[in-house]
Amino acid sequence: MKPIRNLVESLEPHFKEGGKYEKFHPAFDALSTFLFVPGHTTENGVHIRDAMDLKRTMFTVVIAMIPTLLFGMWNVGYQHYLAYGMDMSLMENFMFGFWRVMPIVVVSYAVGLGTEFVFAISKKHVVSEGYLVTGLLIPLILPVTIPLWMVAFASIFCVIIGKEIFGGTGMNFMNPALLARAFLFFAFPAYMTGDIWTDLTPEPGHALVDAYTGATNLVTFDNDFTQLPSPSDMFWGFEQGSIGETSVFAILIGVFILIASGVGSWKIILSCVIGTLAMGLFLNLLAPVDVPTSSLHTPAYYHLLMGSFAFGAAYMATDPVSAAHTEAGKWIYGILIGVFTVILRVFNPAYPEGVMLAILLMNVFAPLIDHLVVERHIQTRMKRA
Amino acid sequence: MESLVNLFVRAVFVENVVFAYFLGMCSFLAVSKKIKTAFGLGLAVIFVMVLTTPLNYLILNYMLEEGALSWISPSLASVDLTFLAFILFISTIAGAVQLVEMVIEKFLPALYSSLGIFLPLITVNCSILGTSLFMQEREYGLAETAVFSLGAGVGFFLAIVLLAGIRERLRYSNVPAPLQGLGMAMFITALMGLAFLSFSGIKI
């Protein structure tokens, strides 16, 4: 560490005001504070210093996502070899997935952070750490077959339109990673729906097995819910889907980290679950008796296990910036996410998965929910006074 | 009954006048800085829509369309006055807005002054004329017209209140200078439209 620290310190004067590379100060600042604790001191007023700054918060979320990333890599390989009927070892499955997933992660980080640097330099503010989370979320919610240029395109879009034009980190009213996915979904539907969930790079000497079907579970679900994989497969994640979303088990590890460290709001996660279960049970009551396979009959807890519900509720709905800020608002926000998720899944044949759009929609509603909650507080206080 | 519920849901969410047809943009963008004002304008728009669209339906079906005048005398059965539809629709709307304006000025003077010029301008809010014209084009019945106009009004109300909520939250954010104010509202509208796309194709 010592030589690096010396190097950073020797370079610093060039980037200070009046130095040769003054313009690139934000970029330098981002790198040096990433490596070492900054030596800044506050200049006026009383400040509370806490080790839990934005950088640590974001890093906790990144750590919480590691289990889903690792499992996602393994599952990419597993699904690939399953489609060709080949029985491979754990390590071979994982390595196959590793070489498929890593380029997506690298592109997402490189392009997204590059865009952030450009904006930081032109707007003369420091690079903030928000993209550390977004940059890993984007690969996890994309199919593994996505072309890399689209990943780059979506990263640029979400940084500029989703965040920078609203004033940067902390000001975006929509979750940037979800925005990137929604953007790709509506702009390039051919690459985001259909037979894309498994990497079908040809294996010499092997043909696709007959039973192989490329559609995700949620497409078949609209017509006949009994076609879904068994609940245990959906829980452990042995199914097709976006890279990080399949395993509820891996996500639960992440949820544990988020809640134990206090970074994610347990209220939002719990209320998402309640909303989904309640709506699922309600639709069971409405379900037609003469069509036993209708998606209205889906057991409510299936909705928690299938698709990307768990991933969305754990990592996207809890985004502290775009979620509701008030405590009562968080309950309303989460329950509505659950309700809309089930409605979109069951009633909207155009989009098989509803979680992404339900969260985006609630991001739009969150400021209004907060406003109503605050107004209500004011009214009850006025009455008491 | 089920089709009426479906029509209402479609008008509010799927075919939202703002996000699907981009109607009523001027007041949508201009009066959405504060939730309270947006709330008032939204209610006024709902009221005017629910009042004028069924009225326009009656005017269209008993005065303007070919054969509509036959209830006066059979000799008028061949008269087709539909070319007057625009001008009569607008007159109805202008009259209703006058009414709303007087009521608001009398009972809610604070809202009246914060809405300013945009209250009389509801007259030319294209979402209201648009709703009447959709009614004519899609050949709705009277019950359908009433439900549709309520749905379109609620859709506009929802859109403008949501936008105001987001703009209030972003009030202190460091927006790039060229995008401050209207430019930002446009971007927010676009992203909200993206979120509302989630309803397209929904069937109840």
Structure description:
- The complex is a heterodimer of chains A (385) and B (204).
- Chain A is mainly alpha-helical and 385 residues long.
- Chain A folds into 2 domains: 15-36 and 54-195, no CATH class; 219-385, no CATH class.
- Chain A is 62% helix and 0% strand.
- Chain A starts with a helix and ends with a helix.
- The model of chain A has no long low-confidence stretch (mean pLDDT 84).
- Chain B has 204 residues and is mainly alpha-helical.
- Chain B has 8 helices and no strands.
- The longest helix of chain B is centred in the first third of the chain and has 30 residues, at 35-64.
- The model of chain B has no long low-confidence stretch (mean pLDDT 86).
- Classes of the chains: A mainly alpha (385), B mainly alpha (204).
Task: Please describe the topology of this protein.
The complex is a heterodimer of chains A (385) and B (204).
Chain A: H1 2-15, H2 25-35, H3 54-83, H4 90-123, H5 130-140, H6 148-160, H7 176-187, H8 189-192, H9 217-221, H10 231-236, H11 248-260, H12 266-286, H13 300-305, H14 309-316, H15 327-347, H16 355-384
Chain B: H1 2-14, H2 25-30, H3 35-64, H4 85-107, H5 109-115, H6 126-138, H7 142-169, H8 182-196
Helix pairs in contact in B: 1-7, 3-4, 3-6, 3-7, 4-5, 4-6, 6-7
Subunit structure (chain A): Composed of six subunits; NqrA, NqrB, NqrC, NqrD, NqrE and NqrF.
Protein name (chain A): Na(+)-translocating NADH-quinone reductase subunit B
GO cellular component, one term (chain A): plasma membrane
Name the average pLDDT of chain A: 84
What would you call the quaternary organization?
A: heterodimer
The percentage helix of chain A is 55-70%
Largest sheet of chain A: none
**Low-confidence spans of chain B: pLDDT under 50, at least 5 residues?**
none
How does the overall form of chain A come out from the CA principal axes? Answer: globular
Q: Helical region count of chain A?
A: 16
How many helices of chain B? 8
Organism (chain B): Persicitalea jodogahamensis
Catalytic activity (chain B): a ubiquinone + n Na(+)(in) + NADH + H(+) = a ubiquinol + n Na(+)(out) + NAD(+)
Protein name (chain B): Na(+)-translocating NADH-quinone reductase subunit E
Subcellular location (chain B): Cell membrane; Endomembrane system
